[in-house]
């Protein structure tokens, strides 16, 4: 896991074929299972997908993301809103970061998944460093979650 003040990068090798990993990322029901979020509808470019987190301790957090790109079995990306519960702004008015999942087939029928979240510079201080720290830990957990999801 690497992080700077504007970006988090995580790479994980998954013992699952590329089509399986792609489905786990882009089918909103499967995504919801491993990411622990109940989503309102399917992912498609340009769609705003809302929902409610089900991750323990974050059940009161709303989910709001705009799907940016879906390049089959290669790239899935969305901009999601930082939810600052102390803000008087609606989540739809709060700053976003860009999440990118890049996939590549590797030897043995496995998949290498590159997870990048960038754009933390758009978040106000001191919140930026708090979110960067929390999301760095969060991507470690989510990488383990998708690994378990696609290999069981």
Automatic annotation (TrEMBL):
<keyword id="KW-0808">Transferase</keyword>
<dbReference type="GO" id="GO:0008168">
    <property type="term" value="F:methyltransferase activity"/>
</dbReference>
<keyword id="KW-0489">Methyltransferase</keyword>
<feature type="domain" description="Activator of Hsp90 ATPase homologue 1/2-like C-terminal">
    <location>
        <begin position="16"/>
        <end position="150"/>
    </location>
</feature>
<dbReference type="Pfam" id="PF08327">
    <property type="entry name" value="AHSA1"/>
</dbReference>
<comment type="similarity">
    <text>Belongs to the AHA1 family.</text>
</comment>
<dbReference type="GO" id="GO:0032259">
    <property type="term" value="P:methylation"/>
</dbReference>
<dbReference type="InterPro" id="IPR023393">
    <property type="entry name" value="START-like_dom_sf"/>
</dbReference>
<dbReference type="InterPro" id="IPR013538">
    <property type="entry name" value="ASHA1/2-like_C"/>
</dbReference>
<protein>
    <submittedName>
        <fullName>Vanillate O-demethylase oxidoreductase VanB</fullName>
    </submittedName>
</protein>
């Amino acid at each position: 896991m690497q992080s700077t003040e504007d970006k988090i990068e995580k790479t994980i090798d998954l013992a699952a074929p590329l089509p399986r990993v792609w489905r786990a990322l882009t089918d909103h029901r499967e995504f919801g299972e491993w990411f622990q979020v109940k989503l309102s509808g399917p992912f498609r470019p340009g769609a705003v997908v809302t929902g409610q987190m089900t991750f323990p301790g974050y059940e009161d957090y709303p989910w709001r993301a705009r799907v940016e790109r879906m390049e089959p079995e290669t790239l899935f990306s969305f901009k999601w809103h930082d939810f600052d519960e102390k803000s008087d702004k609606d989540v739809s008015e709060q700053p976003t970061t860009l999440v990118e999942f890049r996939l590549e087939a590797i030897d043995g029928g496995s998949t290498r998944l590159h997870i990048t979240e960038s754009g933390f510079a758009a978040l106000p201080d001191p919140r930026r460093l708090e979110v960067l720290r929390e999301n760095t830990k969060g991507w470690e957990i989510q990488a383990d979650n998708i690994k378990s999801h696609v290999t069981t």
